[in-house]
Amino acid sequence: MSAPRLETVLRSATKEVVIGHDRRFCIIGERINPTGRRIFQEQLRAGDLSAIERDVKAQVEGGADVLDVNMGVPLTDEPELLAKAIQMVQELTDLPICIDSSVVEALEAGLSVYQGRALVNSITAEDDRMELILPLVKRYDAAVIALPNDAEEIPMEADRRLELVGHVVEVATKEYGIAAADIVIDPLAMPIGSDTATALTTFDTMRRIREEHGLNMTCGASNVSFGMPDRHTLGAAFLPMAMMSGLTSAIMDARTPQIVDAVKAADLLLHHDEWGGSWIAAHRRRQAAAGA
Amino acid sequence: MTPEEILQGLYDETLVGNAPRVLELTNEALGMGMEPQNLLFDALIPSLEEVGARFERGDFFVPEMLIAGRAMAGSMEVLRPLLAETGVQTIGKFLMGTVKGDVHDIGKNLVNIMLEGAGFEVIDLGVQVAPEKFVEKIQEHQPDIVGFSAFLTTTMPMFKANMNALQKAGLRDQVIVMVGGAPVTQEYADAVGADGYAADASATVKKAKDLLQRKRALVSA
To answer: What is the enzyme's class at the highest EC level (chain A) (predicted)?
Structure first.
């Protein structure tokens, strides 16, 4: 018998977003992140957060449902910066936030200023990471992304990933009192360019997580096309296949219409968009924009 | 086939990652009495250099780099013992690892391929390498250069932890330290006191050769 399919509720001060298997796919906009962006890093170091406004606008306009905020700038006070950025983003938009850091103090600083119910990005199956982060998730009533890798490796077999998912769920629910519905698994989408069998493993992992645990899932979608040409086409093919296998959200760049449109089409085909309301509405919006 | 045709064949087939053909040509060349170092320096290394240059220009992609590296590795398995016998020196020994807390290895593996392609002996410690392990392996292998790789802004601070461990073990002055990885910058490399930083695989090779040359000049001066 398959596990009941769970729903993950995220909130800002005023808006609720639900991630679930029978719902429209949740797009977590990823660009509020200085990694690899030299000018943005320098601005942040100098205390200038103005570029965030432009990034938020672009992700919202592109169709993001949730915004990932990462302030991983080397040689800065990340907790302070992340807290500031989260307050700023919450003034700019009513979308819920995915607080992204592996610095525990930064996660705590972010959670302490956040208004609503955040998604924490992320923990692994390592007990020491869970011990540091899960009490925060519980205290601030958040949801959390969990990666099925441990201190040794990113497992390349679905069996081992499932074992680690089982371990995370066991520890998070029994030891820290976190609801299974609030655990969002990242089944690990690896670059297709370094191993062309890797997406099959990921799809298999997704199907089994849905079947055995009913958990929601997310992944860093752009990772799949790393090192390959025509990255958007790969992203636009990967996500609908992953959605079919059980992926319910993705951390992705909402500024890429090719990929966002592929997700919307898959929503319609998977009966997550009843009578095609959203699909048709998007068409009308484009028509209106072209006519304006 | 003439020796020239063999060398050209090795170069071309390595470039397209045809591992079985590269191995065949290697064995054929040795059967004809060609010198192992001839194959290495006149075909395999130039071919890998071309692979690196194409990758840098955006003309080659990750899978092509990986299969070219694999094709060369197959040939090297045959050549390595022969090269050792004839006393051909590698240009230097490079100890490489992804820092503790970090499991990313694609970039590191590409760098390894290019370093081997350039004639370095590469000892890869894999991912999640703790500072103590770097210390232990440096003592064991006595490399010329040690490379720390980190893919996450949150694991980059391990560079400093590694440097401290080297210092404490009294190894800092006997080994060149290079750092790299997607979020790493020259500024950050300087801040942790590394000797060198490079942005990609080809640049790493150039930097490694350069640092090695400077150190050797210093020693012999």
So the answer is: transferase
* CA distance linking residue B185 with residue A45, whole number of Å: 14
Structure tokens of A138? 């519980």
Interatomic CA distance for residues B204 and B208, integer angstroms: 6
Place of tokens 């194959």: B39
Looking at the predicted structure, is the pLDDT value of residue A142 above 90? yes
Confirm whether A130 is domain-assigned.
yes
Mean pLDDT over B168-189 rounds to 93
Mean pLDDT along residues A219-228: 92
A140 contacts chain B (CB < 8 A): no
Q: From CA A221, how far away is CA A204, in angstroms rounded?
A: 16
Residues in chain A: 292
CATH of B3-85, one of 1.10.1240.10, 3.40.50.720, 2.40.128.50, 3.40.1160.10: 1.10.1240.10
What is the DSSP code string of B14-32? HHTT-HHHHHHHHHHHHHT
For B106-126, the pLDDT digits (tens) are 889 889 988 988 889 999 999
CB pair distance less than 8 Å for B103 and A101 = no
Q: What residues of A are in contact with residue B108 (Cβ under 8 Å)?
A: none
B179 vs A: CB within 8 A? no
